[in-house]
Protein backbone atom coordinates (compact mmCIF):
# COMPACT_ATOMS: atom_id res chain seq x y z
CA UNK A 1 0.00 0.00 0.00
CA UNK A 2 1.27 3.41 -0.94
CA UNK A 3 1.99 5.59 2.10
CA UNK A 4 -0.05 8.83 2.11
CA UNK A 5 2.05 11.92 1.68
CA UNK A 6 1.96 14.25 4.69
CA UNK A 7 2.02 18.03 4.34
CA UNK A 8 5.18 19.76 5.50
CA UNK A 9 4.73 21.87 8.67
CA UNK A 10 4.85 25.13 6.65
CA UNK A 11 2.27 23.93 4.20
CA UNK A 12 0.16 22.54 7.03
CA UNK A 13 0.06 25.91 8.75
CA UNK A 14 -0.89 27.64 5.49
CA UNK A 15 -3.64 25.11 4.80
CA UNK A 16 -4.94 25.41 8.35
CA UNK A 17 -5.11 29.18 8.08
CA UNK A 18 -6.94 28.87 4.75
CA UNK A 19 -9.55 26.50 6.23
CA UNK A 20 -10.06 28.80 9.20
CA UNK A 21 -10.57 31.82 6.97
CA UNK A 22 -12.91 29.93 4.64
CA UNK A 23 -15.08 29.09 7.65
CA UNK A 24 -15.69 32.79 8.32
CA UNK A 25 -19.00 34.13 7.09
CA UNK A 26 -19.47 37.38 5.26
CA UNK A 27 -18.39 38.75 1.94
CA UNK A 28 -15.67 41.04 0.80
CA UNK A 29 -12.93 39.50 2.94
CA UNK A 30 -9.67 39.16 1.05
CA UNK A 31 -6.90 36.79 2.02
CA UNK A 32 -3.36 37.14 0.70
CA UNK A 33 -1.51 33.88 0.15
CA UNK A 34 2.22 33.88 -0.46
CA UNK A 35 2.98 31.30 -3.13
CA UNK A 36 6.56 31.26 -4.35
CA UNK A 37 7.20 34.87 -5.39
CA UNK A 38 3.65 35.56 -6.61
CA UNK A 39 1.09 37.43 -4.51
CA UNK A 40 -2.42 36.00 -4.95
CA UNK A 41 -5.60 37.63 -3.65
CA UNK A 42 -8.36 35.16 -2.84
CA UNK A 43 -11.94 36.26 -2.13
CA UNK A 44 -13.34 34.48 0.93
CA UNK A 45 -17.12 34.53 1.08
CA UNK A 46 -18.31 30.99 1.78
CA UNK A 47 -21.41 30.94 4.02
CA UNK A 48 -21.27 29.33 7.42
CA UNK A 49 -24.60 27.68 6.49
CA UNK A 50 -26.68 27.09 3.36
CA UNK A 51 -29.91 27.07 5.39
CA UNK A 52 -31.23 30.45 4.22
CA UNK A 53 -30.55 29.57 0.59
CA UNK A 54 -32.26 26.19 0.91
CA UNK A 55 -35.26 27.70 2.67
CA UNK A 56 -35.69 30.14 -0.23
CA UNK A 57 -35.42 27.69 -3.14
CA UNK A 58 -36.68 24.36 -1.76
CA UNK A 59 -40.43 25.13 -2.22
CA UNK A 60 -39.86 25.35 -6.00
CA UNK A 61 -38.18 21.93 -6.25
CA UNK A 62 -40.52 19.00 -6.90
CA UNK A 63 -40.46 15.22 -7.04
CA UNK A 64 -41.79 13.56 -10.19
CA UNK A 65 -43.52 10.19 -10.30
CA UNK A 66 -44.33 8.54 -13.62
CA UNK A 67 -46.13 5.45 -14.84
CA UNK A 68 -45.75 4.11 -18.34
CA UNK A 69 -45.03 1.18 -20.60
CA UNK A 70 -42.14 0.06 -22.76
CA UNK A 71 -41.12 -2.79 -25.04
CA UNK A 72 -38.87 -5.46 -23.50
CA UNK A 73 -37.83 -8.98 -24.41
CA UNK A 74 -39.01 -12.00 -22.50
CA UNK A 75 -36.26 -14.14 -20.98
CA UNK A 76 -37.61 -17.23 -19.29
CA UNK A 77 -40.58 -16.42 -17.05
CA UNK A 78 -39.19 -12.97 -16.19
CA UNK A 79 -39.08 -9.65 -18.01
CA UNK A 80 -35.82 -7.79 -18.21
CA UNK A 81 -34.92 -4.46 -19.75
CA UNK A 82 -31.88 -6.04 -21.38
CA UNK A 83 -28.82 -3.84 -21.80
CA UNK A 84 -26.22 -5.34 -24.10
CA UNK A 85 -22.78 -5.51 -22.44
CA UNK A 86 -19.84 -3.80 -24.12
CA UNK A 87 -17.93 -6.90 -25.19
CA UNK A 88 -15.32 -7.07 -27.95
CA UNK A 89 -16.37 -9.02 -31.07
CA UNK A 90 -14.07 -11.94 -30.30
CA UNK A 91 -15.11 -12.28 -26.66
CA UNK A 92 -16.36 -15.82 -25.82
CA UNK A 93 -19.54 -14.43 -24.24
CA UNK A 94 -20.45 -12.35 -27.30
CA UNK A 95 -22.24 -15.24 -29.02
CA UNK A 96 -24.13 -16.01 -25.80
CA UNK A 97 -25.50 -12.48 -25.53
CA UNK A 98 -26.11 -12.27 -29.28
CA UNK A 99 -28.76 -14.95 -29.01
CA UNK A 100 -30.75 -12.86 -26.56
CA UNK A 101 -30.40 -9.75 -28.72
CA UNK A 102 -31.82 -11.73 -31.67
CA UNK A 103 -34.44 -13.37 -29.52
CA UNK A 104 -32.93 -16.85 -30.02
CA UNK A 105 -31.79 -17.51 -26.46
CA UNK A 106 -33.17 -19.92 -23.90
CA UNK A 107 -36.73 -19.05 -22.94
CA UNK A 108 -36.47 -15.90 -25.07
CA UNK A 109 -37.90 -14.24 -28.10
CA UNK A 110 -41.05 -12.23 -28.19
CA UNK A 111 -40.90 -8.52 -27.39
CA UNK A 112 -43.70 -7.55 -25.05
CA UNK A 113 -45.01 -4.48 -23.29
CA UNK A 114 -44.10 -4.00 -19.65
CA UNK A 115 -45.57 -1.45 -17.26
CA UNK A 116 -43.10 0.53 -15.16
CA UNK A 117 -42.94 3.16 -12.46
CA UNK A 118 -40.10 5.66 -12.05
CA UNK A 119 -39.22 8.73 -10.05
CA UNK A 120 -37.11 11.82 -10.64
CA UNK A 121 -36.81 15.49 -9.82
CA UNK A 122 -37.76 18.81 -11.34
CA UNK A 123 -38.21 22.48 -10.55
CA UNK A 124 -40.90 25.12 -11.13
CA UNK A 125 -39.92 28.07 -13.33
CA UNK A 126 -43.21 30.01 -13.44
CA UNK A 127 -46.08 30.84 -11.12
CA UNK A 128 -48.52 29.05 -13.43
CA UNK A 129 -46.74 25.72 -13.03
CA UNK A 130 -44.13 25.21 -15.75
CA UNK A 131 -41.73 22.50 -14.59
CA UNK A 132 -38.31 21.57 -16.02
CA UNK A 133 -36.92 18.03 -15.79
CA UNK A 134 -34.96 15.49 -17.82
CA UNK A 135 -36.42 13.78 -20.87
CA UNK A 136 -35.31 10.40 -19.56
CA UNK A 137 -37.40 10.94 -16.40
CA UNK A 138 -40.68 11.22 -18.33
CA UNK A 139 -39.88 9.21 -21.48
CA UNK A 140 -42.62 6.68 -22.34
CA UNK A 141 -44.73 7.99 -19.45
CA UNK A 142 -48.50 7.63 -19.64
CA UNK A 143 -49.18 9.39 -16.34
CA UNK A 144 -47.05 12.10 -14.69
CA UNK A 145 -47.60 13.22 -11.10
CA UNK A 146 -45.72 15.97 -9.31
CA UNK A 147 -45.26 16.10 -5.55
CA UNK A 148 -44.42 19.51 -4.15
CA UNK A 149 -42.34 20.36 -1.09
CA UNK A 150 -45.40 20.18 1.17
CA UNK A 151 -46.30 16.69 -0.05
CA UNK A 152 -49.23 17.76 -2.22
CA UNK A 153 -49.70 15.75 -5.41
CA UNK A 154 -50.52 17.37 -8.76
CA UNK A 155 -51.29 15.98 -12.20
CA UNK A 156 -48.90 17.21 -14.89
CA UNK A 157 -49.05 17.27 -18.67
CA UNK A 158 -46.10 17.03 -21.01
CA UNK A 159 -45.55 20.14 -23.14
CA UNK A 160 -42.52 18.88 -25.03
CA UNK A 161 -39.18 17.11 -24.86
CA UNK A 162 -35.77 17.38 -26.47
CA UNK A 163 -33.90 14.09 -26.58
CA UNK A 164 -30.69 15.70 -27.82
CA UNK A 165 -30.22 17.67 -24.62
CA UNK A 166 -32.27 15.30 -22.41
CA UNK A 167 -34.65 18.06 -21.33
CA UNK A 168 -38.43 18.12 -20.90
CA UNK A 169 -41.02 20.75 -20.03
CA UNK A 170 -44.15 19.92 -18.01
CA UNK A 171 -47.10 21.93 -16.76
CA UNK A 172 -48.94 21.43 -13.48
CA UNK A 173 -52.63 21.47 -14.34
CA UNK A 174 -54.79 24.29 -12.95
CA UNK A 175 -51.83 25.88 -11.13
CA UNK A 176 -51.43 29.50 -10.09
CA UNK A 177 -49.29 31.57 -7.73
CA UNK A 178 -46.71 28.81 -7.25
CA UNK A 179 -43.20 29.43 -5.89
CA UNK A 180 -40.62 29.34 -8.69
CA UNK A 181 -36.92 29.86 -9.32
CA UNK A 182 -34.99 31.62 -12.07
CA UNK A 183 -31.99 30.72 -14.22
CA UNK A 184 -28.61 32.34 -13.61
CA UNK A 185 -27.70 35.00 -16.14
CA UNK A 186 -23.94 34.46 -15.74
CA UNK A 187 -22.05 31.21 -16.08
CA UNK A 188 -20.70 29.55 -12.98
CA UNK A 189 -16.94 29.28 -12.64
CA UNK A 190 -14.83 26.33 -11.62
CA UNK A 191 -14.55 26.49 -7.84
CA UNK A 192 -17.94 28.18 -7.26
CA UNK A 193 -20.12 26.77 -4.51
CA UNK A 194 -23.27 24.95 -5.71
CA UNK A 195 -26.25 23.38 -3.93
CA UNK A 196 -28.29 20.52 -5.42
CA UNK A 197 -31.87 19.76 -4.35
CA UNK A 198 -33.76 16.69 -5.50
CA UNK A 199 -35.42 13.34 -4.96
CA UNK A 200 -32.65 10.70 -4.71
CA UNK A 201 -33.99 7.17 -4.21
CA UNK A 202 -37.44 8.66 -3.60
CA UNK A 203 -36.22 10.70 -0.62
CA UNK A 204 -37.75 14.00 -1.74
CA UNK A 205 -36.37 17.34 -0.61
CA UNK A 206 -32.78 16.16 -0.24
CA UNK A 207 -30.07 18.85 -0.23
CA UNK A 208 -26.37 18.37 -1.03
CA UNK A 209 -23.58 20.87 -1.59
CA UNK A 210 -20.27 21.01 -3.42
CA UNK A 211 -18.38 23.05 -5.97
CA UNK A 212 -18.16 23.31 -9.72
CA UNK A 213 -15.37 20.87 -10.56
CA UNK A 214 -15.08 21.52 -14.31
CA UNK A 215 -16.93 22.96 -17.29
CA UNK A 216 -17.47 21.89 -20.89
CA UNK A 217 -17.39 18.17 -20.16
CA UNK A 218 -18.26 15.83 -23.03
CA UNK A 219 -19.72 12.63 -21.57
CA UNK A 220 -21.24 11.34 -24.83
CA UNK A 221 -24.74 11.20 -23.37
CA UNK A 222 -26.10 13.73 -25.84
CA UNK A 223 -25.10 15.46 -29.04
CA UNK A 224 -23.67 18.61 -27.53
CA UNK A 225 -21.37 17.45 -24.75
CA UNK A 226 -21.41 20.72 -22.78
CA UNK A 227 -21.80 19.72 -19.14
CA UNK A 228 -20.93 21.26 -15.81
CA UNK A 229 -19.16 18.80 -13.54
CA UNK A 230 -19.96 19.14 -9.83
CA UNK A 231 -18.94 17.19 -6.74
CA UNK A 232 -22.21 17.58 -4.80
CA UNK A 233 -23.67 14.15 -4.01
CA UNK A 234 -26.00 13.15 -6.86
CA UNK A 235 -27.75 9.77 -7.00
CA UNK A 236 -30.55 7.97 -8.83
CA UNK A 237 -33.70 10.10 -8.60
CA UNK A 238 -31.79 13.40 -8.67
CA UNK A 239 -32.22 13.44 -12.47
CA UNK A 240 -33.96 16.59 -13.61
CA UNK A 241 -33.35 18.44 -10.37
CA UNK A 242 -31.67 21.86 -10.13
CA UNK A 243 -28.19 22.94 -9.08
CA UNK A 244 -28.18 26.41 -7.52
CA UNK A 245 -25.54 29.06 -7.04
CA UNK A 246 -25.31 31.01 -3.78
CA UNK A 247 -27.77 33.57 -5.13
CA UNK A 248 -30.46 30.89 -5.41
CA UNK A 249 -30.38 30.85 -9.20
CA UNK A 250 -30.37 27.67 -11.27
CA UNK A 251 -26.98 27.10 -12.89
CA UNK A 252 -27.66 23.58 -14.16
CA UNK A 253 -29.99 20.59 -14.42
CA UNK A 254 -28.58 17.42 -12.86
CA UNK A 255 -28.53 14.70 -15.50
CA UNK A 256 -25.83 12.06 -15.11
CA UNK A 257 -23.18 10.70 -12.79
CA UNK A 258 -19.93 8.87 -13.29
CA UNK A 259 -19.98 5.80 -11.07
CA UNK A 260 -18.25 2.42 -11.17
CA UNK A 261 -20.79 1.03 -8.69
CA UNK A 262 -24.01 2.91 -9.37
CA UNK A 263 -23.68 5.24 -6.37
CA UNK A 264 -22.29 8.68 -5.80
CA UNK A 265 -18.51 9.03 -6.05
CA UNK A 266 -18.40 12.82 -6.29
CA UNK A 267 -18.55 13.18 -10.08
CA UNK A 268 -21.89 14.44 -11.38
CA UNK A 269 -22.89 16.30 -14.52
CA UNK A 270 -25.45 19.06 -15.05
CA UNK A 271 -26.76 20.70 -18.21
CA UNK A 272 -25.72 24.38 -18.00
CA UNK A 273 -28.42 27.02 -17.53
CA UNK A 274 -27.61 28.72 -20.85
CA UNK A 275 -28.50 25.54 -22.75
CA UNK A 276 -31.58 24.86 -20.63
CA UNK A 277 -32.97 28.38 -21.15
CA UNK A 278 -32.62 28.12 -24.93
CA UNK A 279 -34.28 24.70 -25.15
CA UNK A 280 -37.08 25.49 -22.70
CA UNK A 281 -37.90 28.74 -24.50
CA UNK A 282 -38.31 26.74 -27.73
CA UNK A 283 -40.48 24.15 -26.01
CA UNK A 284 -42.73 26.87 -24.59
CA UNK A 285 -43.65 28.00 -28.11
CA UNK A 286 -44.89 24.79 -29.68
CA UNK A 287 -43.43 21.86 -27.73
CA UNK A 288 -40.65 21.43 -30.30
CA UNK A 289 -37.02 22.48 -30.60
CA UNK A 290 -35.75 23.68 -33.96
CA UNK A 291 -32.04 23.99 -34.67
CA UNK A 292 -29.94 25.30 -37.48
CA UNK A 293 -28.26 22.80 -39.80
CA UNK A 294 -25.07 23.57 -41.73
CA UNK A 295 -24.94 20.29 -43.63
CA UNK A 296 -21.38 18.99 -43.32
CA UNK A 297 -19.71 15.80 -42.19
CA UNK A 298 -16.78 16.79 -39.97
CA UNK A 299 -13.78 15.49 -38.06
CA UNK A 300 -11.26 16.98 -35.65
CA UNK A 301 -8.07 18.51 -37.02
CA UNK A 302 -4.98 16.66 -35.80
CA UNK A 303 -1.52 18.22 -35.55
CA UNK A 304 -0.44 16.26 -38.62
CA UNK A 305 -3.39 17.61 -40.62
CA UNK A 306 -2.71 21.15 -39.44
CA UNK A 307 0.95 20.85 -40.46
CA UNK A 308 0.02 19.45 -43.86
CA UNK A 309 -2.29 22.36 -44.74
CA UNK A 310 -0.22 25.13 -43.20
CA UNK A 311 -2.30 25.89 -40.10
CA UNK A 312 -0.30 27.22 -37.17
CA UNK A 313 -1.95 24.74 -34.78
CA UNK A 314 -4.59 22.03 -34.66
CA UNK A 315 -7.92 23.89 -34.61
CA UNK A 316 -11.23 24.07 -36.39
CA UNK A 317 -13.40 21.31 -37.85
CA UNK A 318 -12.42 19.58 -41.09
CA UNK A 319 -15.18 18.91 -43.62
CA UNK A 320 -15.18 15.25 -44.67
CA UNK A 321 -18.14 15.69 -47.01
CA UNK A 322 -20.91 18.26 -47.47
CA UNK A 323 -24.40 16.82 -47.08
CA UNK A 324 -26.06 16.36 -50.49
CA UNK A 325 -28.16 19.45 -51.24
CA UNK A 326 -27.15 20.91 -47.87
CA UNK A 327 -26.62 24.65 -47.36
CA UNK A 328 -22.83 24.42 -46.95
CA UNK A 329 -22.36 22.45 -50.15
CA UNK A 330 -24.62 24.77 -52.12
CA UNK A 331 -22.61 27.75 -50.88
CA UNK A 332 -19.34 26.25 -52.15
CA UNK A 333 -17.79 24.48 -49.15
CA UNK A 334 -16.02 21.28 -50.21
CA UNK A 335 -14.42 18.25 -48.59
CA UNK A 336 -11.04 19.15 -47.13
CA UNK A 337 -12.06 22.66 -46.03
CA UNK A 338 -11.39 23.45 -42.38
CA UNK A 339 -14.07 25.58 -40.69
CA UNK A 340 -12.28 28.12 -38.47
CA UNK A 341 -15.03 30.60 -37.58
CA UNK A 342 -18.82 30.93 -37.55
CA UNK A 343 -20.13 34.49 -37.24
CA UNK A 344 -16.77 35.56 -35.85
CA UNK A 345 -16.65 32.84 -33.16
CA UNK A 346 -13.48 30.75 -33.25
CA UNK A 347 -14.12 27.02 -33.72
CA UNK A 348 -11.83 24.81 -31.66
CA UNK A 349 -13.03 21.37 -32.77
CA UNK A 350 -16.00 19.42 -34.12
CA UNK A 351 -17.95 19.56 -30.85
CA UNK A 352 -17.47 23.32 -30.72
CA UNK A 353 -18.89 23.64 -34.25
CA UNK A 354 -21.89 21.47 -33.38
CA UNK A 355 -22.63 23.55 -30.28
CA UNK A 356 -22.22 26.84 -32.14
CA UNK A 357 -24.53 25.96 -35.03
CA UNK A 358 -27.11 24.31 -32.75
CA UNK A 359 -27.61 27.60 -30.92
CA UNK A 360 -28.72 29.25 -34.17
CA UNK A 361 -32.21 29.12 -35.63
CA UNK A 362 -33.10 27.84 -39.09
CA UNK A 363 -33.11 30.53 -41.81
CA UNK A 364 -30.27 32.35 -40.00
CA UNK A 365 -27.60 33.75 -42.32
CA UNK A 366 -24.11 33.07 -40.97
CA UNK A 367 -20.60 33.89 -42.11
CA UNK A 368 -18.41 30.80 -42.21
CA UNK A 369 -14.63 31.18 -42.54
CA UNK A 370 -12.81 28.14 -43.93
CA UNK A 371 -9.13 27.35 -44.48
CA UNK A 372 -8.35 26.18 -47.99
CA UNK A 373 -5.13 26.25 -49.99
CA UNK A 374 -3.23 28.15 -47.32
CA UNK A 375 -5.71 31.02 -46.96
CA UNK A 376 -8.99 31.95 -45.30
CA UNK A 377 -12.12 32.11 -47.46
CA UNK A 378 -15.46 33.53 -46.31
CA UNK A 379 -18.88 32.10 -47.22
CA UNK A 380 -22.33 33.43 -46.41
CA UNK A 381 -24.64 30.50 -45.65
CA UNK A 382 -28.32 30.36 -44.74
CA UNK A 383 -28.96 27.54 -42.27
CA UNK A 384 -31.85 25.13 -42.73
CA UNK A 385 -33.77 23.25 -40.06
CA UNK A 386 -32.05 20.21 -38.68
CA UNK A 387 -33.90 16.94 -39.22
CA UNK A 388 -33.28 14.46 -36.44
CA UNK A 389 -31.36 11.34 -37.46
CA UNK A 390 -34.18 8.95 -36.66
CA UNK A 391 -36.42 10.79 -39.17
CA UNK A 392 -33.80 11.63 -41.79
CA UNK A 393 -33.74 9.42 -44.91
CA UNK A 394 -30.50 7.72 -45.84
CA UNK A 395 -28.84 10.13 -48.33
CA UNK A 396 -27.03 7.24 -50.04
CA UNK A 397 -30.16 5.21 -50.68
CA UNK A 398 -31.71 6.35 -53.96
CA UNK A 399 -34.80 4.19 -54.11
CA UNK A 400 -36.72 2.56 -51.32
CA UNK A 401 -35.94 -1.13 -50.91
CA UNK A 402 -38.75 -3.53 -49.98
CA UNK A 403 -38.53 -4.93 -46.48
CA UNK A 404 -37.65 -8.63 -46.31
CA UNK A 405 -40.56 -10.92 -45.67
CA UNK A 406 -40.59 -12.07 -42.06
CA UNK A 407 -41.23 -15.73 -41.23
CA UNK A 408 -44.81 -16.36 -40.10
CA UNK A 409 -45.63 -18.42 -37.02
CA UNK A 410 -46.98 -21.90 -37.62
CA UNK A 411 -50.45 -23.02 -36.53
CA UNK A 412 -48.99 -24.37 -33.27
CA UNK A 413 -47.29 -21.09 -32.32
CA UNK A 414 -43.73 -21.84 -33.42
CA UNK A 415 -41.87 -19.49 -35.77
CA UNK A 416 -39.32 -21.68 -37.57
CA UNK A 417 -36.35 -20.66 -39.70
CA UNK A 418 -33.45 -22.44 -41.35
CA UNK A 419 -30.88 -23.79 -38.89
CA UNK A 420 -27.58 -22.48 -40.24
CA UNK A 421 -25.67 -24.55 -37.68
CA UNK A 422 -26.95 -27.96 -38.71
CA UNK A 423 -29.99 -30.14 -39.32
CA UNK A 424 -33.57 -29.29 -38.53
CA UNK A 425 -35.33 -25.96 -38.05
CA UNK A 426 -34.43 -23.26 -35.52
CA UNK A 427 -37.17 -21.89 -33.29
CA UNK A 428 -37.02 -18.11 -33.73
CA UNK A 429 -39.99 -17.25 -31.54
CA UNK A 430 -42.81 -18.84 -29.55
CA UNK A 431 -46.26 -17.28 -29.34
CA UNK A 432 -47.60 -16.65 -25.88
CA UNK A 433 -50.49 -18.86 -24.74
CA UNK A 434 -49.85 -21.33 -27.56
CA UNK A 435 -49.59 -25.10 -27.12
CA UNK A 436 -45.87 -24.83 -27.91
CA UNK A 437 -45.43 -22.31 -25.08
CA UNK A 438 -47.29 -24.60 -22.70
CA UNK A 439 -44.82 -27.37 -23.54
CA UNK A 440 -41.90 -25.00 -22.76
CA UNK A 441 -40.59 -24.65 -26.29
CA UNK A 442 -38.27 -21.65 -26.45
CA UNK A 443 -36.45 -19.55 -28.99
CA UNK A 444 -33.12 -21.25 -29.69
CA UNK A 445 -34.51 -24.80 -29.64
CA UNK A 446 -34.01 -26.88 -32.79
CA UNK A 447 -36.87 -29.03 -34.15
CA UNK A 448 -35.18 -32.03 -35.77
CA UNK A 449 -38.18 -34.21 -36.68
CA UNK A 450 -41.96 -34.07 -36.69
CA UNK A 451 -43.92 -37.34 -36.78
CA UNK A 452 -40.63 -39.14 -37.50
CA UNK A 453 -39.83 -37.03 -40.57
CA UNK A 454 -36.62 -34.97 -40.76
CA UNK A 455 -37.45 -31.30 -41.30
CA UNK A 456 -36.08 -28.96 -43.94
CA UNK A 457 -38.62 -26.11 -44.12
CA UNK A 458 -41.41 -24.42 -42.17
CA UNK A 459 -43.86 -25.28 -44.98
CA UNK A 460 -42.96 -28.97 -44.64
CA UNK A 461 -43.58 -28.77 -40.89
CA UNK A 462 -47.01 -27.21 -41.45
CA UNK A 463 -47.89 -29.94 -43.98
CA UNK A 464 -47.00 -32.60 -41.38
CA UNK A 465 -49.19 -30.85 -38.77
CA UNK A 466 -52.09 -30.85 -41.24
CA UNK A 467 -51.53 -34.50 -42.08
CA UNK A 468 -51.55 -35.52 -38.41
CA UNK A 469 -54.75 -33.54 -37.82
CA UNK A 470 -56.42 -35.14 -40.84
CA UNK A 471 -55.49 -38.58 -39.54
CA UNK A 472 -57.54 -37.86 -36.41
CA UNK A 473 -54.60 -37.60 -34.02
CA UNK A 474 -54.52 -34.69 -31.56
CA UNK A 475 -50.82 -34.81 -30.69
CA UNK A 476 -47.71 -34.44 -32.84
CA UNK A 477 -44.49 -36.21 -31.87
CA UNK A 478 -41.56 -33.79 -31.95
CA UNK A 479 -37.86 -34.58 -31.78
CA UNK A 480 -36.03 -31.47 -30.57
CA UNK A 481 -32.66 -30.43 -29.23
CA UNK A 482 -31.63 -27.74 -26.76
CA UNK A 483 -27.90 -27.32 -26.56
CA UNK A 484 -26.45 -30.84 -26.49
CA UNK A 485 -29.61 -32.47 -25.17
CA UNK A 486 -32.08 -34.18 -27.49
CA UNK A 487 -35.64 -34.85 -26.33
CA UNK A 488 -39.00 -36.03 -27.68
CA UNK A 489 -42.16 -34.11 -26.90
CA UNK A 490 -45.83 -34.63 -27.61
CA UNK A 491 -47.22 -31.36 -28.94
CA UNK A 492 -51.02 -30.96 -28.58
CA UNK A 493 -52.74 -29.87 -31.77
How would you describe this protein?
The chain is α+β, with helices and mostly antiparallel strands. It has 4 domains: 9-44, no CATH class; 49-75 and 93-287, Thrombin, subunit H; 292-385, PDZ domain (Pdz3 Domain, Roll); 414-492, Pdz3 Domain. 17% of the residues lie in helices and 37% in strands. It has helices spanning 9-22, 51-57, 94-101, 135-138, 273-286, 303-309, 327-331, 350-358, 435-438, 458-470; strands at 29-35, 38-44, 61-75, 78-80, 111-124, 130-133, 141-147, 153-162, 167-172, 193-198, 206-217, 227-230, 242-244, 250-257, 268-272, 292-293, 296-300, 317-322, 338-342, 345-346, 365-372, 375-382, 384-385, 414-418, 425-430, 446-450, 453-454, 475-482, 485-492. The strands form 6 sheets. The protein has a 6-stranded antiparallel β-barrel with strand order 3-5-6-9-8-7. A hairpin with a 5-residue loop joins strand 13 (242-244) and strand 14. The protein is extended. It starts with 8 loop residues before the first helix and ends with a strand.
User: Could you report the average pLDDT, rounded to the nearest whole number?
Assistant: 80
Major sheet characteristics:
6 strands, antiparallel, barrel
Strand content: 35-45%
Count structural domains.
Answer: 4
Count all strands and give the number: 29
Strand order of the largest sheet: 3-5-6-9-8-7
**Which CATH class of the largest domain is shown?**
Mainly Beta
Structural class call reads: alpha+beta
List strands and helices in order, with pairings:
Elements: H1 9-22, E1 29-35, E2 38-44, H2 51-57, E3 61-75, E4 78-80, H3 94-101, E5 111-124, E6 130-133, H4 135-138, E7 141-147, E8 153-162, E9 167-172, E10 193-198, E11 206-217, E12 227-230, E13 242-244, E14 250-257, E15 268-272, H5 273-286, E16 292-293, E17 296-300, H6 303-309, E18 317-322, H7 327-331, E19 338-342, E20 345-346, H8 350-358, E21 365-372, E22 375-382, E23 384-385, E24 414-418, E25 425-430, H9 435-438, E26 446-450, E27 453-454, H10 458-470, E28 475-482, E29 485-492
Antiparallel strand pairs: 1-2, 3-4, 3-5, 3-7, 5-6, 6-9, 7-8, 8-9, 10-11, 10-13, 11-12, 12-15, 13-14, 14-15, 16-23, 17-18, 18-19, 19-20, 19-21, 21-22, 24-25, 25-26, 26-27, 26-28, 28-29
